[in-house]
Every structure is written in C-alpha cells, then in structure tokens.
Amino acid sequence: MIAAARAAVDIGLEELGCQALLVVGSSARDPDLASFVGPVHLTQAFVVAPKGQPPRLAYLTPMERDEAAATGLVLLTPEVLEVTRWWRELPTGEAALAKVLSLAFEECGLEPCRIALAGQGEVGEVHAAARALERQGWTLVSGAALARQARKRKNDRQLRAARRVAAGTATAMRRVAELLAASEAREGELWLQGERLKVGRLRMEVARTLAAFDLEQPVGNIIAPAEEGAVPHNSGTDGRILRPDESLVVDLYPRGWLYADCTRTFCVGRPPEPLAAAHGSLLRVLERIDAKLRGRGDGKALRAFSLQDAACSLLKADGYATPLTDPGTESGYVHNLGHGVGFELHEYPSFRREAGAEGLLETGDLITIEPGLYDPEAGFGIRLEDEIFLGPEGPEKLTDLPYDLDPRAW
Amino acid sequence: MIAAARAAVDIGLEELGCQALLVVGSSARDPDLASFVGPVHLTQAFVVAPKGQPPRLAYLTPMERDEAAATGLVLLTPEVLEVTRWWRELPTGEAALAKVLSLAFEECGLEPCRIALAGQGEVGEVHAAARALERQGWTLVSGAALARQARKRKNDRQLRAARRVAAGTATAMRRVAELLAASEAREGELWLQGERLKVGRLRMEVARTLAAFDLEQPVGNIIAPAEEGAVPHNSGTDGRILRPDESLVVDLYPRGWLYADCTRTFCVGRPPEPLAAAHGSLLRVLERIDAKLRGRGDGKALRAFSLQDAACSLLKADGYATPLTDPGTESGYVHNLGHGVGFELHEYPSFRREAGAEGLLETGDLITIEPGLYDPEAGFGIRLEDEIFLGPEGPEKLTDLPYDLDPRAW
Q1: Is residue B299 over pLDDT 80?
Q2: How far does B290 lie from chain A, in Å, by closest CA?
Q3: Residues B60 and B21 in one domain
Q4: Measured between alpha carbons, how far is residue B333 from residues A61, A251, B185, B278 in Å?
Q5: pLDDT tens, residue by residue, A328-352
Q6: CATH number of the structural domain spanning residue B83
Q7: Quick one: pLDDT band at residue B127, thresholds 50, 70, 90?
Q8: Which of A128, A159, A178, B311 is deepest in the core (most CB within 10 A)?
Q9: Are residues B122 and B211 in the same domain?
Q10: Measured between beta carbons, which residues in chain A are less than 8 angstroms from residue B115?
Q11: Residues in Cβ contact with A193 at an 8 Å cutoff, skipping those fewer than 6 apart
C-alpha cells in the first residue's frame, strides 16, 4: 500500500465519520481486497484499516499462513481470532463471522463505533453478520466508494503488473492483425488457410495468445464485424464469416492481476467512405485528448468529464450526434470517452459529469480513452481505445499499437 | 430452472419464514445468479422468487434487454422500475438500489415482509440498501444457504455444460501426460526438447489447451512436484525443475459456464515404494466409493460424509493417519473426500459431518471424489480426483482418464 492509498482511506473515513474500514472478500482476487493484499492466494480473509493506523489482515485458514505473511501486512491469525471455535460453537455462519469480526476490531483497539464496510462477497451472510454487530453497538455504513477511491491511484507494483497485462493484450491484437493481413477476399468473403475466416477463429487465437501470457478473459471480449460492431455492447458471433470492406471492432480486456483494456478496428480491403471519415475523426479526438493529458502537469486540476466534453465538441463539429448534444442517440458517438481500469475493468477515475473527487484525473491513475462512432443503419462501428497511465512525467500509453484500419499496414 | 430447484426454493423459504428470495449479483456469472439466468451476459440484474411463484428477473440496463429476454424468465424492465430516475434523483446508490428493490417487490405482489437475501456483490452497498428497506418494514435475512441448496441438483443444460468443461479438463490432463511421457531423465533432471522440464512449461501447456476449449482458470491450478505436492494447498512453483522418480500432483479446476475439477498424480521413472503403496491404497478407496455410489439407487439415502467415513476406515486399515482418527494430521490422509462442484468450485453437497439436508447425495448432484495421501517428511504427495454426476441410472464419471503414475502408460 502506498502513502496515497493510506491517505485516501483516512480522508474517506473522516468524511464518513467512521473509525475504520472493513474490507471483506472471498478471494484475494476480489477487487477491494486485491489492492490491499497483493497478488497472493487467500480464500478466507478480511482487512481492517483503523483510521491513522496500518491496515491489518485477518486470515481464517491456518493453511494460508504463508500467503498471508507474503502480503507484508500486520496479521491477525486464525488462532488469535479462535476461528475454529466460533464456527463450531455458534449456531450459524453469520454468528461466527460476526464474532470473528468483533474480535478483530477489538485486536485493533476499536470499541463499538461506526465502520465503513467494503469488499465483495455473499451479501446475505455479510448483511446478517453486520446486523448482529449492529445489535452489539457497531454501525456499518457503505465503504464501497471509499475502497474504490483508495485503489484509484496505482503504485509501482500495480503499474508493473498493468504494463505486463497490456503487453500481452497488444500481442494478441497484433496476432489478430496478422491473421487478417494473411486473409484473402474471394466472392465477398475472407478466406484463410483454405477456410472461410470466421469471428470464432480470431477469438480462439486471441484466447491462445493471452493464455501464453497467463491472462484470462473473465468478461470475454468483443470481436464484432459490421452490423454487430455497430452496437457497442454486441460481442460478435463466432460463426459470422468476415467480409472484405467491412468494419471489425476488436476490444480485448483480459485480466492478469489487474485488467487491461484495448480496442482497435480493422477493415480488410477498401473502407467505405463513412468508415474512413469516422476513422479520421477519431484520430483527431485521440490527438486532442493526448494534448490535454500532456497539459495536465502545469498545476491545473483536470476532470475526466472535461475530456468527454472535448471529444463531444470535436465530434459534433464533424457532424456526429453525441451523448451531450443528443442524449440517448444510438448513432454517432454514443458512449463515454473512457474509464479507470485496474482491479475492476471499470473503476475510478469516473468520467461522469456528476462525479465528485473520483472524477479528478490524478498522477497514478490508470485510464482508457476510447472514442467510437457507430452507424447501425449503415452497419458499421469503429472504436479506438488506448490504456494510459498518468505518470509523474506525463501520460504513458500502455497499448502502443498502430491505429490503421488496414491490417496490412500494421 | 427445473422443478427440483423451484421446490428447493419454496422449501427453504418456508424454513426461513420468508415470502421471497432475492438474489442480487454484479454479473450473470456470479454463482447464485448464474443458476437462475443461464449462460447470458448481464451486468446489473437481480432475481426475485416469491414463494410458489416463478422467479422474475429485473435487469437495470436497457442495453441488456436481449440478454434478459434470453433467460426465459418473467422480466421486470428498467422502464417499469424507473431505474434511471432513481439513480438521478436519489442522493446515493444505496438509496436508489433500495427504491428499485422495493418497486420490484411490489411488482411481485409483495407487501413489507421477511425476504431471504442471497447473491454475490458489493457487501457495503447491499447492506446499506438492506438497512434502508428494513426502515420501510422489510426484514432481510441470509438466503445464502438457500440459494446454494437451490443449485445443488443440476438440470440437463447444466449437466451438458459440465460435461463439456470436464472434457476440456481431461484433454489438458492428457497433454500433461504426453509431455511427461516424452521427457527424458538426465543426471537426475527431466529434459524435454533440449530444455530442462519445469512446472511452468506444463502450466503454460495446460493454459493453452484449456483456452482452446474456451475455459478459464479463475482460481489457477496445482502442478506440484514432490515436496510441494506434499502440502495439499501448495500450487507449485513455475521455476521448479522436474525430476525422475518423484511425485507430481496435477489438479486442474477450470471454469466454462460451470467449473470442472480433476486431479491425477504422475511419476516419471520408478516410484519410491511408499508412493507406489499409497497409489494402491487410493485405487482401493476409489473402487469402494464407486461401489457405494452404485448402491445408492436402492432407496437408501446416502450422506456424503459416509463416504469420508468409509475412506478413512480403509486408509486407517492401510496404516495411514486420517482426519477422523488423528484430527489435525499433516501426514497421511489430511482432508475431506470430496465436494460438490458447479457454479462454485466448492458447493453443495457438503461432505462435512455436521451437514444437514445439504449433506445428502441426491440424483442431479455433481461431486468430486478426491482421496489423497501426503508425506511432507518423505517429500511426496498423491491425489486422484474424479468428477462424478449422480444420474438417475447411477454415477457417471465425467473425467474418464487413466490413474497410472507412469505417463507412458497413458
């Protein structure tokens, strides 16, 4: 945990009037817990971070003692918390959990007070345990936003992990470009190695390439040609045969310890004029945003929403509908410009207009910038998405790939 | 949802004194939600299952209407629930969630009453929303065990998915056997294709093979030689060079829509006598358990714990320590015999002695049987694990692979 994260916890606790943050989890891969414990293997654990004190890790299974020690956190052991006893003696799992939590609070020097509750888990069990604690004088309020804010700015170790995942993602994208570049058009269809080239073939190749980097795709990916790519949430059908002269949106968002997120759009052959024009508009948006991110250093606070605002202005000037000028539009520019990325695919900073402190772009933030243009009637979509680290020296693009529609130019 | 699942929900609601089950989730892949909605893509949704009525699905994002419709459930749309309005007008996400939940309850014909709460999600937000509902007269108790019980017995669609994942897992295991069989011993190390064969090489090959089946490993795998495999939770170190005449535990538990789980143990060369003896003992356990599962049909209820009991008797007779005769032992047979598997890697039926209805083996259950023997001092571990469906015609082994230690015999 870096000082920035510790400070964010303390500020958040102050705002909520709480004495401590409690982060529960069923796995060290749960986003809130992950940012506290690092890339270890823990299945039953929680963190208590009392205001102004280092966070402590309670692990509940003696077998996980080595993993718990590897976190470097102050530990509350299952022996001290008498975990086995409570699960044996108390009538329900909720009662046992409440008992162990109250003992952990006590070990941290806390008396019944207000606690911010965060983490992911079995909501029924945790709610019941929280109600039991409330009957003993504790108050539990939502610490979900606090925990998300605490992991907004990435530390060096998290950044290194993010770079590694982004590198694997870029390799998979290059592999897609290679296959497309090697394909041939015959009677309106693309062929590769004696077979019609289908979405499923590219998806398989992406999965294999990412697996070689030890990356997974827990929320899948988007490989969406023409009419499918014209709807941003359509992930593309495996059996769809690819055609020359059509758009193909490839959006990859695999996870290692952290997530990466990158999109490119291809067109084998000659892009229709509206697609080529949209491509030009998006390149201008990316340039403009890059300039704004580079200008961030000189003392002015920059809000993520201001980037969305700038993108909408540019695209409006190019004749496209945008969410700010035409709310609810399904054609033109139809979504937000980006999002934070890390332990969740979408996390802080927030690009929403209504965002508070979580909408501020700060050094250490990891974001994506993903302008896109869609035309369901004409049947095309295009999106270009980079992952960018806001470093002390300026923005660093983690997904350094060509933007060309033509895979042969890659 | 099959009739069995509907019936389990109604029985559970009756036991808890509740009028409805509420299952929240942040993804259709969350285990409780998954069993209700099927393999669709939903990010913001919940299910309300009032007693004696079909469950209804509330989805919160208009973009997910097609996915929601694909579940075949009665739908509560974001328009009916006025989702956008509450997230705009109410001060916090918790307040908006509470409002939408109470509207959904109302649409189901419910008045303030006792509700069983299940599902996985942001515990802080859900607890806060539940507290808001409680101030309006609702009572929320834990429905975690109820939801788990409702997905204990698998339906045909779930079984087909499980078979597919098990087949991919078996292929990955055969691939490991192939590489080991092709390796050569030189000066106490295994070599393959001009390189020392390391754990990491096998792990890479497993990941590639599983990726080709569109399977992921959200909780990793275990590829643990000798001293590492002697501790059941040690997952094995990538850099470890494999040696002849030592044990190698390979435990794969990937996920498609459901999880699969399978373990084999290899020994390239000549197994030390204690390893060979342990192998013989485990084969006898597997035979005995198979006979017990085949005998299940004749009207007697069989408890999962009785299988653990039988395994301990056999292994005790062979001279090994067991959890029943030597609680806490770290050598010999040190864990339970199996577990249910499905939307979670470990789910019902429960093999614990203390289990209630969840400890009963029933038609439709999907279980693993995984006897193992460990000797940290001698530095070896061996575990053989099959995944078994308890079908109406008897047990069906989903992981039909050899048990041989010698990969050349595969």
Answers
A1: no
A2: 30
A3: yes
A4: 18, 47, 30, 10
A5: 899 999 999 999 999 999 999 999 9
A6: 3.40.350.10
A7: very high
A8: B311
A9: no
A10: none
A11: none
Question: pLDDT grade, residue A110 (50/70/90)?
Answer: very high
Which structural domain range is residue A20 located in?
Answer: 3-150
Q: Can you read off the two tokens belonging to residue B1? A: 């949802």
3-class SS at A71? coil
For the packed helices B123-135 and A123-135, what is the interaxial angle rounded to 10 degrees? Answer: 60
Q: Give a three-class secondary structure readout of A303-319.
A: EHHHHHHHHHHHHHHCC
Give the side-chain half-sphere CA count within 13 A for A326. 12
Report yes or no: B120 and B31 within 8 Å, Cβ to Cβ. yes
| A35 Cα to chain B: minimum distance (Å) | 15
Please give the DSSP secondary-structure letter assigned to residue A297.
Answer: G
Residues in chain A: 410
Backbone angles phi, psi at B348, to 5 degrees: -70, 150
Count of structural domains within chain B:
2
Judged against a pLDDT cut of 80, whether residue B88 lies above it is answered with: yes
Q: Quote the minimal CA–CA distance from A158 to chain B in Å.
A: 19
Query: Choosing among B127, B148, B252, B334, which should be mutated to test the A contact, i.e. which has the most A CBs within 10 A?
Result: B127
Q: Write out the two tokens for B410.
A: 């595969």
- Whether residue A304 is found in the same domain as residue A363: yes
Same domain for A141 and A61: yes
**Same domain for B160 and B145:** no
Inform me whether the pLDDT recorded for A299 exceeds 80: no
Task: Look at residues B92, B118, B150 and tell me which one is the last residue of a structural domain.
Answer: B150
Domain edge (last residue) among B150, B183, B202? B150
Q: What are phi and psi of B364, to 5 degrees?
A: 105, -15
> What CATH number did the domain enclosing B318 receive?
3.90.230.10
Q: What is the pLDDT of residues B236-282, one digit of tens each?
A: 999 999 999 999 999 999 999 999 999 999 999 999 999 999 999 99
pTM for the structure as a whole: 0.89
Interface contact flag, A141 B121, Cβ < 8 Å: no
Contact A119 B117 (CB under 8 A): no
pLDDT digits (tens, 9 = 90+) for A67-103: 899 999 999 999 999 999 999 899 999 999 999 999 9
Cα(B143)–Cα(B93) distance, integer angstroms: 23
Q: What is the pLDDT of residues B344-358, one digit of tens each?
A: 999 999 999 989 999
ipTM: 0.87
Q: Same domain for B371 and B227?
A: yes
Same domain membership, residue B220 and residue B321:
yes
Neighbours of A347 (CB within 10 A): 23
- Residues 6 or more apart whose CB falls under 8 angstroms from that of A398 comprise A162, A163, A166, A167, A260, A366, A386, A387, A388, A389
